[in-house]
Structure formats: C-alpha cells, structure tokens
Amino acid sequence: VPSNHIPSGNLCAYLSCCSSFLEVVCKLTGSLEISWLLFVFFSSDIEISRAQCPKAVDVLAKEIGLLTDEIEIYGQTKAKVRLSLLERLKDQPDGKYVLVAGITPTPLGEGKSTVTVGLVQALTAHLNINSFACLRQPSQGPTFGVKGGAAGGGYAQVIPMEEFNLHLTGDIHAITAANNLLAAAIDARILHENTQSDKSLYNRLVPVVNGVRGFSPIQLARLRRLGINKTDPGTLTEEEISKFARLDIDPSTITWQRVVDTNDRFLRKITVGQAATEKGFARQAQFDIAVASEIMAILALTTSLQDMKERLGRVVVANDKKGEPVTAEDLGVTGALAVLMKDAIKPTLMQTLEGTPVFVHAGPFANIAHGSSSVLADKIALKLVGEKGFVVTEAGFGADIGMEKFFNIKCRASGLVPSVVVLVATVRALKMHGGGPNVTAGAPLKKEYTEENLQLVADGCCNLQKQIQITQLFGVPVVVALNVFKTDSPAEIDLVCKIAKESGAFDAVPCNHWSAGGRGAIKLAQAVEKAVNQKNNFKYLYNLELPIVEKIRTIAQKVYGAQDIELSPAAQSQVDRYTQQGFGNLPICMAKTHLSLSHQPERKGVPTGFILPISDVRASIGAGFIYPLVGTVSFLFLYGDLILKLFVKIQHHIRALTVGSERMVLAVVSLAVVFMLIYGTP
C-alpha cells in the first residue's frame, strides 16, 4: 500500500483504527484512498489520537538529547524535565523562536493550536529540522465543561489526548494547593490578630525552641522592611513587637480568592468563617477557576526556582488598614508555597501524532493574564533544538491581545526575541469581518460562508491587514497561515494570500494540516524557514517608565485603533493607589473581549473612532503586571465562550439521532441546559 495515500505515512495508525465499514468500502471500491478519506471525515479527534501508538517517553527523551538523570518519567507517555538541563546547555546557542498568533476570531476559533502542531510536524517529521512545540496545559473547567480539551485536532494534535487534557502531571493541582494555602493563611492571620494580644502573637510567631529563641530568615527580612535593624527577639520594644506581629489586614480589601479547577457556579459567591471556632469572623468570598490564580501566571513567567520564590513572596493579597499592600512574604508562607510548586516548575514532555516533541507547561488565561505557555519551557526547548532548530509557541486569542502581551510581558520576563510571527487566518473569519452574517457556535453556517464570495473575503481582509500592521509595530517578520476548510474555494484562498503579501506579510500560504498532518503544513514550514533570515528589528511597544494611564492609552490607540481611553472613577483610584505603592513601572495586561478589536464584540472588521472604557484596574504584582478591565468584562467572561460552544455538542448529538421525536426532545433539553447555565434558573 503506498504510504503517501495516508497522512504522515502512518500506515500502522490507519490499519489499527480502520473500521469494518471502511474495510468493506475499500474492498468494494478497490481504493484505499477513498477508504482513508471516509475515515478522515467520520473519525473524531480522540479516535485519531487513540489510533496512534506513541513512542515511549524515554525513547523520545533520548532522541532529543536529554540525559537519563534529566527526566522524571510519569507513566509511558509523559516526563518532567529538570531545570539542571539549562546549566548543562548554557553555552549552546538558542534555536529560532516562532510565535503563532491569529486574526480576530469567530466564536468557533480559527485553529492556532492545530497550526502550531502541524508546523512542528512538518519541520521535524517531513523536513528533518529539529523543532519543539510549547503549549499551554488546559484547565479541567473547559475540558469537563463545553469547550473540551486543547490538544489540537485532526492530524495535528498532541497525544495521548486523555493524558494531555486530564491532570497531566499534576501542575494545576499543585497551583490549587498553593493558592488555597495562602488563602487559609490570610483568614487565619486575621482571626489570630483579632483574638490575641501583641505579646501572645509575638510568642506564637517567635517561639522558644529547645531553649533558644530566634528570628527566621523570612522574619529578619520583614524586620528590615519595617526599618527595625535588630536580630535578637528579646530586644524589641513593645511598639516594635506590635509593628512586627500585626499585619492589620483590612478584610474589605482582600483580593486573594480560593480556587478549584471545576466549573462550579455555586462557589462563585460564598461565606467563610461560619463555624463556632471562627468566633463570628465571617466574610463574603468566592472561588475562582484554578488557572486564573496569579500563581499560574507566576509559573508561566518565572525563570528559575529562586525567581519563582521571589515572585510568590511579592504577591499582594490585600491592603492593611493604612492602605499599604500586604504580601505573601508578610504572611511568612513564601517557602511553603515554593515547596508545593517545586515539581510544577518543571516542564512536561509529550509528543505530537507524528512523534515530534512537545513541552506542555503552564496555562494562564489570555484575558486576566498573558495567555502563553511557560518561559522555562521555551528556554529549555531553544537549547535542545540547537542553533538551526525551531521552537514554536502560541499566544492566546488574536494578535491584538495574545501577541501584544507575549511581546510586552513574556518577552520582557524571558529576555527572548522572537524570530517570526505566524498569523493564522481563515476564509470564514474574513467573511465575517467583511460583513457576513453572525457566526454562532453550533448553528449551521449561512450560505455566505459555504459558497464562494470574493467580495466578502476582500472586504474582510481589512482585519488581516490590521493584524499584520500590529505585528509590524514590534519589528518582527510575519508569515500568514491560511487554515483551509473544505468550503474554501481556490479563488478565495488565492485572494487572501495575495492581499496578505501586498499588505506586508513576508509570505502567505494555505495549510491543510488538520486533514493531512505535517504534510499539509510543509509549505508553511518552508516559508517560516525563509522568514527567520529576514531582518528583525524587535522592539517593545512602550517604555515601562511611562505612567500606567499612558501605557494603557498607547495599547488602545496603536493596537486597537481607539481614539482615546476613558477611566471610571474606580479605575482611576486604583491607578493612583498602585502608583503610590510603587507598582507604576509594571507592564500592562489588558482584559478585553477577543471577538473585536474594540470593547464591543459585535463590531467586526477594523472599528475606529471609539473611546475605550476602562471600568477597573487590578494588579498581579507577583506575576509582574497591571491588568485593566475593559468595558463590562468580568471574571464571568471566563465561561462565556464555553456556553456558546455548548451548541456544537448539541448539534453533534442531534445529528446522530435518526428519529425526529428523539431529535426534538434532545434539542429542547439541550436548550434548557443552556438557559440554566446563563440565567442560573431551572
């Protein structure tokens, strides 16, 4: 059987998953290719994943140059990679650094993850060039909710899919434990300070052990911050004892919430401290999704174990009654948090469907955080691929959000300079930006999207052109990857590629990686290989020394195309407070809808002349950024897309039924579930 009839030459995978139906078709038609095409159309992502037998992870590790003592194996297909590798390879030149971003997407997504995986499969499995993909770990919230996993899809995915999407190596659970330990320490400290004298508190904090009383290193550091230059606990005055022992946390200013990695709506608002042992010190609180924890953003941006410990110590959890910030370091729990995270800091090694290496590490959201995988995974991968190799990573949402944060936040933390940007587009999204009907997850696409319409495509390319211009603000070459769907006509594909190249893209190529694996992304890989040799004038968008408001204005005007910004009184108050507290020199992480360049999701194309409203401004001091909330954005937007994407699964199950009454029953029940999710009522 000619292997070129099977994507990636994967004959074993084909034979192992060929159903009896396809075997019959093959015998009747005498065509393996027809049988294979049917398999492509009728197989789900998980069936494709399970059809492939991944190589043992120790074999993969040896192939990419890892030593036996540099990996910690988790089962047959996953391994943690120790950070000692960076010391061993410190003199090795870095490979080429490639960022995959996208145009403003439809609610369906445009395929950045599949492009990332397809590109590395093309580079390594087909062009014999060392490459690594660096991806985020998905949350169990979306995985068990509606959106599903994040391993890619079709013949461009990470395997085993179940291992990728479920638990992985426990990093998110470690973040949950560390986050909730800090939350518990906050409430415990408030309780003890409310029920004990200064002397009792001091004796608990600095106890006599084996007849000796001494300050711990973290306590000595707190004394220095307070201006108390003493090392003998017995020499502190009563005033100094009170100053040292009491944090005087203002409960109304606590910003640190407990987390759980499940979409549990009944935990969005809770009351803590109702037991009799808490002596009436109850307060309102809430649970967030685990990956929204600042500790996740810290994990993604840290450069070493020591750096992570320092970042954890800088986390601001509340203000005291004088308006000064209270940190994890003040609570004395920094060491405990670092111990809980000691294994999570190591990237996890996995592989693609075609056996090429992948690092899965960290999974911060792309709204309240920067939306990229870890700095450490990128740094290790860049050493492993060698000077001529490629590391491909992804930025969440469109280039106006994910890419801007990648450059201004992640690149500042890592010191790494990207070689090229791959900008993902689809004909479907461009038609939407050109004035096409609304695209709704689960609803059938209107005929404008399934039939050739060159005018809609041409009009919608304004968004692609804008995203290319945004990339050029940072001085990095850009290659456009057109993710091809079966409904795209050759004329539409040619038109998009032509306009992209005329608009400043180094190249623009159609990609068929979803249905053909790495073979479908070979032209993209060749374009990227050429683009990295272009002149790179990388630069940040703004100077950190600018005032917070000016940095926000720069992003709004230069990236989004806003006329100006407007801060609410609450937002301005927070800006003033952060500036007074010494946090004014941090980069900005805008929390904005990803469905439009503006703050209004319904405004497609390239909106202009709008005023960008900033409703609130918050800070992740440990992670190292300020995040303004744009418009009516709130933490509930973490689930908005999940509700929309429920329609996809509804449609799938309805189509699977043949009896009309059964379809009707399922449709009614499914819609009821959606309304319960939105309105919280039965």
Give an account of the 3D structure.
Pfam families: FTHFS. This is formate--tetrahydrofolate ligase. It is an enzyme of class 6 (ligase). One of its GO terms (biological process) is tetrahydrofolate interconversion. One of its GO terms (molecular function) is formate-tetrahydrofolate ligase activity. The chain is of the alpha/beta class. 44% of the residues lie in helices and 15% in strands. The strands form six sheets. Strands 1, 2, 3, 4, 5, 6, 15, 16, 17, 18, 19 and 20 form a twelve-stranded mixed β-sheet that branches. Strands 21-22-23 form a three-stranded mixed β-sheet. The protein has a two-stranded antiparallel ribbon with strand order 7-8. Strand 13 and strand 14 form a beta hairpin. Helix 20 crosses helix 22. The longest helix is centred in the first third of the chain and has 25 residues. The protein is globular. The N terminus and C terminus are likely disordered.
Compose a concise summary of this entry.
The protein is α/β, with parallel strands linked by helices and 682 residues long.
What keyword list fits this structure?
disordered C terminus, 29 helices, globular, one-carbon metabolism, single chain, ATP-binding, 682 residues, Formate_THF_ligase_CS, 23 strands, alpha/beta
